[in-house]
Specification:
The chain has 13 helices and 13 strands. By secondary structure, it is an alpha/beta fold. The protein folds into 2 domains: about 170 residues, HAD superfamily/HAD-like (Rossmann fold, 3-Layer(aba) Sandwich), CATH 3.40.50.1000; about 120 residues, Calcium-transporting ATPase, cytoplasmic domain N (3-Layer(aba) Sandwich), CATH 3.40.1110.10. It has a 7-stranded mixed sheet, sandwiched between helices. A 6-stranded antiparallel sheet has the order 3-8-7-6-5-4. Bound molecules: adenosine-5'-diphosphate and magnesium ion. The site of adenosine-5'-diphosphate has 23 residues, from helix 3, helix 5, strand 5, strand 6 and strand 7.
Length: about 290
């Protein structure tokens, strides 16, 4: 009867919008006590829009957006799309960058019209010993305190400005978090984004445990650390900078709206990208296993 019950669970999963890699996956959900949620694209829609264009004194705002937009046009990251689309909407013509490089979890670099341009976290600028001048750093912090993500732009050996983007929290996220807690699970927010943005999002959806400013390779280390504390970890992500963590978790859940890498690294796929279905998946597996026992 065991295989039959598992097959029934798998079929019911498909009806709920959950693709299950194999019936045995339902077994590993049994002990899950912690659910790690990636922020961008999982708790939030991941569809960011350009908000503020803040040039350094002496830098032209249109030029700032044109050079940053040109480099970001070569990247698939949600922040990159927001900046490239925002630049195009504001009338910029974006040349194709040379020597484009994606620095995972930090930003991008590329050469545009002979300028070596950097766009990303302050840490990326610091790698070239560049820092934001005080007034730009203050503008960046103010935007972050309001929950916007701010990135720095530099070229020609100088910080040239700050661009901010904002990402909406999914309407269903707070309800999904409450649902996970009702199932006795501890929700955790994990993000490469800065502390202020992470805390603002966590507060809004009701998550108390937050890991911010985590580089993509360190997302795996956070999952491992939770596991070493004796916790059994499910992780939900969209595959942008979190595919390795999804594979490391005891149970990986991919947003169906995410990348192919996420789906490949995961045990379960939430077809509609609705976080509430993560709770349905755990409830389903518990029920299915109860039937077997
Ligand atoms: P999350 O963990 O929320 O999914 P990521 O790990 O993808 O976020 O990115 C972490 C941070 O790295 C971003 O908040 C941003 O500051 C910076 N970053 C990553 N990619 C880019 C990019 N293409 N352009 C600018 N900044 C970027
Ligand atoms: Mg992400």
């Amino acid at each position: 009867a065991t295989p039959t019950a598992l097959m029934v669970g798998t079929g019911r999963g498909a009806q709920l919008g959950i693709l299950i890699r194999g019936p045995e996956v339902l077994e590993s959900t049994r002990r899950v006590d912690t659910v790690v949620l990636d922020k961008t694209g999982t708790v939030t829609t991941g569809t960011m829009r350009l908000q503020d264009v803040i040039p350094a004194p002496g830098t032209d705002a249109a030029e700032l957006l044109r050079l940053a937009g040109a480099v970001e046009h070569a990247s698939e990251h949600p922040i990159a799309r927001a900046i490239a689309d925002g630049a195009i909407e504001r009338g910029a013509e974006l040349p194709v960058p040379e020597g484009f490089e994606n620095v995972a979890g930090l930003g991008v670099r590329g050469v545009v019209d002979g300028h070596a341009v950097l766009v990303g976290r302050e840490k990326l600028l610091a790698e070239e010993s560049l820092a934001l001048p005080d007034e730009l750093a203050a503008a960046k912090r103010a935007a972050e305190a309001e929950g916007r993500t701010a990135v720095a732009v530099a070229w020609g050996g100088e910080a040239r400005g700050v661009l901010t983007v904002a990402d909406a929290i999914k309407e269903t996220s707070a309800e999904a978090v409450a649902e996970l807690e009702r199932l006795g699970l501890t929700p955790v927010l994990l993000t490469g984004d800065n502390r202020a943005v992470a805390d603002a999002v966590a507060r809004e959806v009701g998550i108390g445990e937050v890991y911010a400013e985590v580089l993509p390779e360190d997302k795996v280390a956070v999952v491992k650390r939770l596991q070493s504390e004796g916790r059994t970890v499910a992780m939900v992500g969209d595959g942008v900078n979190d595919a390795a963590a999804l594979a490391t978790a005891d149970l990986g859940l991919a947003m169906g709206t995410g990348t192919d890498a996420a789906i490949e690294a995961s045990d379960l796929t939430l077809v509609r990208g609705d976080l509430r279905v993560a709770a349905d998946a755990i409830r389903l597996s518990r029920k299915t296993l109860a039937t077997i026992k």
